[in-house]
Amino acid sequence: MTTDTEQTLVDAAWPYWECEGEIAKRYYADATDEGHAFYLKAQLWKELHPVDGFFNGLHRELKELVDRFPEVDKTMDRHEYHFLLTQLTEEFNHYVMLADILEHVMGRKISAEDTVQLPEEKKLGDLRRGYVDDELTRAAVGFTEGGGARLFREGAKLSGNTVNDMTAKAMEIIFDDEKDHYAEQAKICVELIKTDDDLARMKDAIRDISVQRVRMRAEMFPGAMTDAEIDAFIIENTKS
């Protein structure tokens, strides 16, 4: 059951998450193969470097998890280890599926050099790094990760041609993996909120990160919405 505080946090992020979905929805409506390739290169970078500024990239995360294997059932609970291992395999599977789509639209094998960190994504990582040293705002980073899975929700609805069918199949799997993450993170946030000031700081961090997430999506899906359209959409979907 969602608590009032959890709902307050969701309400703070809601208009920005929905805007991420709307940007993708409009872009997909008439995207060419070149358009799919552009956003996929950026999304693949994100899949290889989940929550830049919070996690450390799949390679380092996997290495650290391998190094911690001897701790299982000693200083580390086996269920926690399995959870972390599952997270990493899910993230890599997301990369595999989206990379297959990129290869389809580009008509050739791809390499890691085909992934790209766009400027607004780098700004998002820098912003997150400014929050992760404080336990309260670090939780806000986790809560906002994935933007409520709105991109994947919209991508899962596509149909009509091969690239859309491939995208829908992949995005449906990713959406199923990601859709409950924000709710899980919300519970962590609630445990850390002790005062009204804590709640205000958490909401401010959520909005700050979410605004930058929208800028990141607007750059990833160029031309889908103007700045004015984005501002109007966010105002219209803000919960009082």
Q: Your description of this structure?
A:
- This protein is mainly α and 240 residues long.
- It has one domain: Heme oxygenase-like (Heme Oxygenase, Chain A, Up-down Bundle), CATH 1.20.910.
- The chain is built from 11 helices and no strands.
- Helix 6 packs parallel to helix 10.
- The longest helix is centred in the middle third of the chain and has 29 residues.
- The mean pLDDT is 93.
Properties at a glance:
mainly alpha; Heme Oxygenase, Chain A; 11 helices; globular
Question: Sheet with the most strands?
Answer: none
State the share of residues found in helices, binned by percent. over 70%
CATH architecture: Up-down Bundle
Please, how many helices? Answer: 11
Give me the secondary-structure category.
mainly alpha
CATH topology: Heme Oxygenase, Chain A
**What's the name of the CATH homologous superfamily?**
Heme oxygenase-like
Question: What is the 3D shape?
Answer: globular
How many separate domains make up the residues? 1
Unreliable stretches (pLDDT < 50, length at least 5) are none
H/E element sequence: HHHHHHHHHHH
